[in-house]
Amino acid sequence: MFKKIKKDMNRRISSIRNLRTIKGLRNDELIIDLGKTFEGELKSWMKKSANSPYYRVFEIIDNRYLKLSKEKTADYIDENGCIIEEIAGKWYFDVEQTKGDGSCKTIYMGRILFTNDISCTNGIELFPTIVDSIFNNQFNNFFS
Prior knowledge:
Elements: E1 17-18, E2 22-25, E3 30-33, E4 41-47, E5 56-57, E6 59-61, E7 65-68, E8 76-77, E9 83-85, E10 89-98, E11 104-115, H1 128-143
Parallel strand pairs: 1-11, 2-11
Antiparallel strand pairs: 3-7, 4-5, 4-10, 6-7, 8-9, 10-11
């Protein structure tokens, strides 16, 4: 009789801390607090997927805070006005620490969910006079 060996790959113990999903707004500055100041040099960037050719680099402040400027939380647009990459959606990031001896390791991983900011999107406000003029034009065209 053979024994079944159960392999449980979901129970890996990792030394990399995982941050909960952080919510961010398009065209709005984002600052993430890592909770403490770290030794050495920190680097961090984010991508929509591991295979994406585009990434955005965080500014590291006091070896504790990750900052994305307003420009980096905007859609990437080419010179013709076509969107290269939208910010809306889920992004993955990690934080790497390089110590004085040259050793490098990933100390944090996380996700950011960007949503569209209503106040910074394109559109026009419908004033009552605009609505009235549209209604009057349709009304007049209907009876003409």
